Amino acid sequence: MGGIVVTIFWFLVVLTPLVFVHEFGHYWFARRAGVRVEVFSVGFGRELFGYTDKAGTRWKFSLIPFGGYVKMFGQSDLGPDDDGDEMTADERAVAFHHKKLSQKTAIVAAGPLANILFAIGIFTILFATAGQPFTPAQVSEVVPGSAAEAAGLQSGDEFLEVAGRTIARFEEVQQLIRLHPGIPVDIVVDRDGSQLDLVATPSVNVIPDGLGDEARIGVLGVRGLERAFERHSVPWAAWQGVRETVRLVSVTVTAIGQMFGGERSAQELGGPVRIAQMSGSAADAGIATLVIFAAFLSINLGLINLLPIPLLDGGHLAFYAYEAVFRRAPGRWAQELGMKIGLVFVLGLMLFATFNDIVRLPVVQRIVELFT
Asked: Do the bridges between strand 185-191 and strand 37-52 make them parallel or antiparallel, or are there none, so unpaired?
């Protein structure tokens, strides 16, 4: 029981600031645009505690800590926003629905953007204090019989590109190769001043993921030079924070694309239970690991909300893109239908991810083994 309590504690420590940052992005842009914000909630369901500020916004923490929301005047919870037919002129002036298209777009996009900027901030602070793992992207040794040897890699080669991504550190090579188990990868190296284009098919390695499950990763079969940590100046740390965030965005998008393409199992999707387990494991590994995990989770939260699915921020942005192109908003029936489809999709995805979490639990696996 003590372990469960500790895991839940670290889960809340990691997730709550990310939810707050996301919703504060919406809130901040809404207030700049003159929109009245009625509710700022971290969590869903019944209110646990909160207060109302001078602007009339109810700031609160709610019972179910798996997300949050900002409720703006004139904005519907589900379905199209209020068209304002029964509003007074003063109410229209502070209603979300009656703001310019550019303002509504900025307000909706601000949440995911805040998560991305938050990740950059985390990496900037980390790289300026603890330092950034940095291994030169040079091959010191090729493992005999490996995928690297089959591809023609040699000791002394310096990686320039892997899978279309520019390489600056050996750690980036490892991350990209892990994403391509058994999948051919284009590699560009510098060998004695000349660029060579190679193709390698990383071997498949199945390893425990530390959560009672297994993960398939790609292995190239090269070793780098000695690993070091470099502490940067704040401007350079910020630049490296941007690069690291962009790289993680690219890696995440690639992994999602592989799931849709069937190259990666959808069973790798995780929900709240998995996030809680990973938060606890990251905390056990040290504060630096926990902070990096929080940055990675912040990026994922931002990207997921940008998916063009009604009910998510990306779905609203898709409606606004339609309005920008055709000079009119989608029909009310289309918005209502889209919201219902989005609700079904999001709930289905959450149930699927939670099911994956549950079947990974050791106690569940032991019960299954008793009947198989």
From this structure: unpaired
